[in-house]
DNA sequence: GCAAAAGTGTTAGATCTACACCCATGC
DNA sequence: GCATGGGTGTAGATCTAACACTTTTGC
């Protein structure tokens, strides 16, 4: 007869792949690890799951501690459960990806914690299986972003169509046709054009848009066809 | 300074939502639970994760034990990590959904284990949060099946277009236009028509098809548009 | 005026949807 | 011959991809 008491118990952690976007490239928030083994090496933001909290709670707590932010877009995407993924002791890690508005929060991040933003294609080597986690998270982000408008979570309140297109191109590692992109975005009803223009990157200037939050909430689960020729790994 | 030793350890389990299809309705494989608490109540197939195995290994082992089958289509989809989900002690559960060909394996299942197939809409109440798991698994199956040809995993070697359509309709809880469905399926290149017909459900008979395995493997990650007007929860 | 980025228009082709219509066969 | 489920055809609407074109404005 199987009983609970005779079964092995394990450490359980959460790790967060935190994405940001600075208008040019997709970025990743990494921290210098604060405990042995591999102390002071780059790692994902993570921590152990406490006895009174769910894994979601733990991920939010860890993010809050490292970024000062509440209410971040957070999505659990995979458990890493290989018995030997940590050299000291078995730890199961529940991985989350997080999307944050980099502009809003960068000041706090860089001062209060040993956190640093890296362009996603120029990240340092990470500890353990964190490199795999990042790779998996990028795939998952790509998948979700092709079907749902989650990338708006990465943008500031005001943004331009060229910025939005760059973001899509970064996430999908591809180039898109501007005409078709604009038409598609405008047809979703998710964008509200403002009168103001951003002239920082062109003479003509690009209109600022804001998100139609009502439409965003109501149509979030509607599957859009945001990327042509979609081929997705996961 | 945080150290591993001072952190809490938890039980970790896997639970499998096993789907089957008998040609008419989508089914769920459930077992009578074999340990306290809630012994002899209906539950998902599950078990504790052993010290030397990954969670994937554990899911495969548990499935093998309960179904006699190797090489089942298996996909991890969520961790259930609420601290109080089990009344005795905290257990984190890694949930997998599995797709199996019901015809091939039903004999073994029903004899050797206390396993039973239930139509997915007529399942009994399950223990703990297993009802939520089933509901989440159905959503995830729906999502994936709308974009990738995974439902073939549920079908026998030979199947007809009407059967396939019924399966899609069951999974998505909707009705589809036969003409459009057939055209779409044939255009994927995934089907190979056989000479034989199934006359069991009509006078004219429906051609049997088999899966083009090569195409299935090569195009698996290509995102198809298998369902119109898609709205997906997860 | 010219260069450069933003944004609009156009067009051929593909796909989608709804629905009408033929097919094969057991009774 | 007719009912029944299987399967095909078709026309209009919609969507797509590619690319040419216009707009704006700092220099």
From TrEMBL, chains A, B:
UniProt keyword annotation of Hydrolase present: yes
Nudix hydrolase domain mapped to chain residues: 9-141
Protein source organism: Pedobacter ureilyticus
Keyword Iron found: no
One of the record's GO molecular function terms: hydrolase activity
Identification of the protein by name: NUDIX hydrolase
Keywords, alphabetical: Hydrolase
Classification via InterPro entries: NUDIX_hydrolase-like_dom_sf, NUDIX_hydrolase_dom, WH-like_DNA-bd_sf, WH_DNA-bd_sf, WHD_NrtR
């Amino acid at each position: 007869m199987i009983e609970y008491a005779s079964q092995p118990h394990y450490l359980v952690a959460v790790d967060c792949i935190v994405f940001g976007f600075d208008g040019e490239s997709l970025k990743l928030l990494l921290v210098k690890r604060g405990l042995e083994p591999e102390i002071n090496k780059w790692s994902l933001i993570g921590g152990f799951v406490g006895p009174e909290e769910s894994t979601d709670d733990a991920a939010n707590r860890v993010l809050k501690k490292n970024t000062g932010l509440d209410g971040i877009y957070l999505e659990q995407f995979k458990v890493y459960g290989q018995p030997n993924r940590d050299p000291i002791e078995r730890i199961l890690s529940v991985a989350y990806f997080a999307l944050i508005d980099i502009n809003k929060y960068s000041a706090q991040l860089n001062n209060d914690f040993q956190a640093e933003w890296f362009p996603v294609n120029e990240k340092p080597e990470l500890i353990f299986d964190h490199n795999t986690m990042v790779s998996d998270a990028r795939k998952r982000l790509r998948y979700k972003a092709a079907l749902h408008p989650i990338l708006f979570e990465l943008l500031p309140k005001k943004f331009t169509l060229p910025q939005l297109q760059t973001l899509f191109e970064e996430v999908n590692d591809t180039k898109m046709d501007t005409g078709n992109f604009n038409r598609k975005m405008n047809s979703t009803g998710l964008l509200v054009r403002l009168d103001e223009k951003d002239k920082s990157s062109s003479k003509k200037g690009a209109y600022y848009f804001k998100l139609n939050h009502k439409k965003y909430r109501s149509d979030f689960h509607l599957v859009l066809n945001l990327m042509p020729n979609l081929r997705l790994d996961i």
